[in-house]
Amino acid sequence: MNTKVNIAGVELKNPVTTCSGTFGSGQEYGEFVDLGLLGGVVTKGVSNVPWPGNPAPRIAETYGGMINAIGLQNPGIDVFVRRDIPYLKQYDTKIIVNVCGKTAEDYVEVVERLSQEPVDLLEINISCPNVKEGGIAFGQDPKAVEAITREVKRHARQPVIMKLSPNVTDITVMAKAAEAGGADAISLINTLTGMKIDVHRRTFAVANKTGGLSGPAIKPVAVRMVYQAANAVKIPVIGMGGIMTAEDAIEFILAGATAVAVGTANFHNPRATAEIVKGIEQYMERYKVDDICQLIGAVE
Prior knowledge:
The protein has one domain: TIM Barrel. It has 9 helices and 16 strands. It has helices at 77-89, 104-114, 135-140, 142-155, 171-180, 219-232, 246-255, 265-268, 272-286, and strands at residues 5-7, 10-12, 16-18, 40-42, 59-62, 65-68, 94-99, 121-125, 160-163, 185-188, 192-195, 197-198, 203-204, 210-214, 237-240, 259-262. Strands 3-16-15-10-9-8-7-4 form an 8-stranded parallel β-sheet. A 4-stranded antiparallel β-sheet has the order 5-6-14-11, with no helix packed on it. α5 (171-180) links the parallel β9 (160-163) and β10 (185-188). It is globular and about 55 Å long.
């Protein structure tokens, strides 16, 4: 049985990766999950300088999911290179670095720093809805998507995945813009912009007022957008948004995703990723599928 998939020439042992921002750089989960079981680990967003993130409270539970307004807090590229890459290199898994920035120059600086590092793929975060400057503008304008993709590709040594925002009128326009800019793959969806109000205190549940909604509540939207994007472009699609089980993951693969990423589920069940890997294998056995690639886009 073959579970290997290929993203822009990089072979993943199986299609299961993690969603940026839900898994740190693996350290928090190392005691629960053998990271070597996963196709890839996607790191938390890395910027050129340390980012403090948004004021607290930054997370609120919602029906069928959660809202976060972390604001991409991270210690910056220097700490990441020194601390996180050596940790991940211990494991037989692909390293996918999520890159964030407020300007094109910010992205390029991180991408150039990573060009000499032993990482496999770059995921460019142009879609975080809770960053007040930069991200939202890049991800919601197709011209900006194409331009930032082209600029990053000029400086990147590793293949580039553009992570798309769902907070747009037509996801296919954004997918095509990323492809036109030279993206090697796209990943979607990032969180949907949401809000929660505490009716007893009559205040916003997160200090930022709005945040990114993730979890099972967004999965039907995510599956629809992955299907649309996969049918609009020729490059591989990585699907995410509310995946909790192997069946959820297979739904995305049938919709056209070559690989998937598991996010909010990690908070609910730290072993979710490893269980999904095993569940996909059991599904393939049950339905006598000898190659995972036979399932990609196989919905009828």
